[in-house]
Design a protein that fits this description.
alpha+beta; Aminopeptidase; eleven-stranded mixed β-sheet; four-stranded antiparallel β-sheet; 15 strands; Acyl_CoA_acyltransferase; PG_Glycine_Bridge_Synth; BioF2-like_GNAT_dom
Length: 352
């Protein structure tokens, strides 16, 4: 299929052959770990989604991939293409030379398919090209992440930490906080027990019933999901845990590829206290990103939380604003948002 979109034409192949996918990925120094075919394999492992990735080959020689999954069954009637589903990280275009012309051509192609819903959470580092290509028919949901530039190496990143962050790291080391790291899903059970402790704390802060908070957490991030990801990403999936008196006290999950993405964290505040364990976990993951040659360390979504921003900026991270995109044939996004607001009002839910 050849589609004419000024100023360049393009051809589309879907799903993307794995050898081609890895070739395009290797040529993009900004590629996120979630841009890999292994990430889509993990996402489709339980059978609810299928690979709907699209390879765009342009007349000027450039190539770009838009990793998509399509919802199976009744929930996907009419075509629900997601890059990616909620709780599955960032997707969007990957490839060398992505600019506004490429994005505009891709958006034109997606509109011509007449799917019921298309959802894209693009790489924040490429947001400018997306922003310039948008029109009034694309619904945007504002997002914010924090990103650390690793280009100067580990010493430069260390000196970019705030005085308090360096002090907390040293305190944790002096107090004998024990750090363990596990690849491919190792340490996930200890991490998950810590995660459920955090869910209790978040439920109290948000005025959410504990049972509901646990149900939502296990629906969004069941242990099996994290195990799927660990199995498929292998060395690119790392759990970092801080132990105090033999008990897990703070932990994180970080994804590693051409770039690194800190994607999950949990903490037992009573155990951590003033030990600096949380800062030591984060610094350990950042050092590993430098050692693996990652170009940037994406610290994930911050929203409008001042506390999250303050924590991330202690490590030298800078805020980057971008948006999630929706192309809906019916007002699915607005209806979903209205329903969520109504439920929160009934529960007295507080977004913190």
């Amino acid at each position: 299929m050849t589609v004419q979109t000024a100023p360049i034409t393009h051809q589309v192949v879907s799903p993307v052959p794995r050898d081609k996918w890895r070739s395009v990925l290797a040529g993009d120094p900004l590629a996120l770990p979630e841009h890999s075919p292994e990430w889509v394999d993990a996402l489709t492992d339980d059978g609810r989604y299928r690979d709907a990735s699209r390879l765009y080959t342009f007349s000027d020689g450039r190539e770009a991939i838009l990793p998509f999954v399509r919802r199976r069954g009744l929930a996907g009637i009419g075509g629900w293409l997601l890059s990616y589903p909620s709780g599955w990280g960032m997707g969007g275009l990957v490839g060398a030379g992505i600019d506004v012309d490429v994005v505009r051509a891709v958006l034109g192609d997606l509109r011509e398919q007449h799917w019921q819903r298309v959802a894209i959470r693009p790489d924040p580092q490429r947001w400018q090209a997306w922003a310039e290509a948008l029109d009034a028919n694309v619904l945007t949901i504002p997002r914010r992440v924090h990103i650390i530039d690793l280009g100067g190496g580990v010493d430069s990143v260390w000196h970019g930490l705030s005085n308090s962050a360096r002090r907390h790291v040293r305190t944790a080391e002096q107090q004998g906080v024990h750090i363990e790291t596990g690849q491919s899903g190792a340490l996930l059970k200890d991490y998950y027990s810590l995660f459920l402790v955090s869910v209790d704390r978040w439920a109290e802060q948000q005025h959410e019933p504990r049972a509901l908070a646990h149900a939502r957490a296990k629906l969004r991030d069941p242990l099996s999901k994290l195990q799927f990801i660990g199995r498929h990403l292998g060395e690119g999936f790392l759990v970092t845990l801080a132990y105090i008196d033999g008990k897990p006290a703070a932990g994180s999950i970080t994804l590693y590829g051409r770039t690194a993405h800190y994607t999950r964290s949990a903490m037992d505040r009573e155990l951590v206290g003033r030990t600096g364990a949380g800062e030591l976990v984060q610094w350990t993951a950042i050092k590993l990103a430098c050692e693996r040659g990652c170009t940037v360390y994406n610290m994930g979504e911050s929203g409008q939380s001042a506390a999250l921003a303050q924590f991330k900026e202690k490590f030298g991270a800078r805020p980057v604003d971008y948006a999630e995109l929706r192309l809906d044939r019916l007002p699915w996004t607005r209806a979903d948002a209205a329903l969520r607001r109504a439920v929160k009002r009934v529960l007295g839910f507080r977004d913190v």
